[in-house]
């Protein structure tokens, strides 16, 4: 058998470069589960619970001052439940960003549109608008 030496460093560097350039990147089931779990916890603690408790306290205060006259404990519970779900829904964009940050290997600067400028950032005078009118 003929054994040829293999350069492991070169092949690992090549694999890393290939992984960075491959788009879209696939997430493993474990990564998806971790992101989902983190999103559930953060949406509960940072949006749903504070919004729910705050709205329930405000509703109870309005009831006790007599501003809301035909209200009961059921009203406070319903307001709290609605605020809880609204808080969960408000966190969806943050969770979507978490998934996108794992999928996209580069930052948003890659997706900026390039304008016809030279190196100093000034407009290129050679790029003139052409006359496209029909005679």
UniProtKB/TrEMBL annotation:
Residues 107-135 are annotated as: Disordered. Residues 30-100 form the OCIA domain. The chain crosses the membrane at residues 44-63, 75-92. GO terms for cellular component: mitochondrial inner membrane. Keywords: Membrane, Transmembrane, Transmembrane helix. Pfam families: OCIA. InterPro entries: OCAD1/2, OCIA_dom. Residues 110-135 have a biased composition (Basic and acidic residues). This is OCIA domain-containing protein 2-like isoform X1. It comes from Pantherophis guttatus (Corn snake).
